[in-house]
């Protein structure tokens, strides 16, 4: 897994370096916005339990190089918060854990312009792209509320205590996988005028890697899907 991550990192750095020598067809893009992420797994062995998605923040820096007419390749770096929550329902309501996660993501995409090409003319443009990504789990913070079982009330309920901590990846007690990968899709709507442009962007990451190293049973595989809606600026060198 580390090898895959470093291979993509190398390709991304090489792409940025070679792009600087082809500035007549190079665009730099920067955008920021909201993310929404969900953790997917099989909880059939846990009654009154579910994972729910949560919002976060994200920012992207990418370079886009035209390769043939309206086709392009794109790569860069993304900071993404992929947050989610584990919660108990029914008789266990009030018991939950919120996960705040930070990732560094490296996408490698290929796509094309469906309407207009900002490298050739100004005006409204639409583009779509798809490919893969690899990411690195920077940090995880947990905040939860749990029942105090030895403090049962007369009505059978329990008081709750709140706990928060930052996960120690050096100890890695839950055997989490810091390097991950998956598929990524992108759609953008923008307007270009001279060298500058503005756009709105939608990105979707479909996780393929299990976030836990020791999940032998494929039915217990845990993956993260993430959406991002952002606005940004683009600059073309030609």
From TrEMBL:
Tell me which residues make up the Outer membrane protein beta-barrel domain.
21-212
Organism domain of life: Bacteria
Enumerate the UniProt keywords alphabetically.
Answer: Signal
- UniProt-listed InterPro entries: Beta-barrel_OMP_2
Q: Tell me where the signal peptide lies.
A: 1-22
> What is this protein identified as?
Outer membrane protein beta-barrel domain-containing protein
* Species the sequence originates in: Chishuiella changwenlii
Upper lineage ranks? Bacteria, Pseudomonadati, Bacteroidota, Flavobacteriia, Flavobacteriales
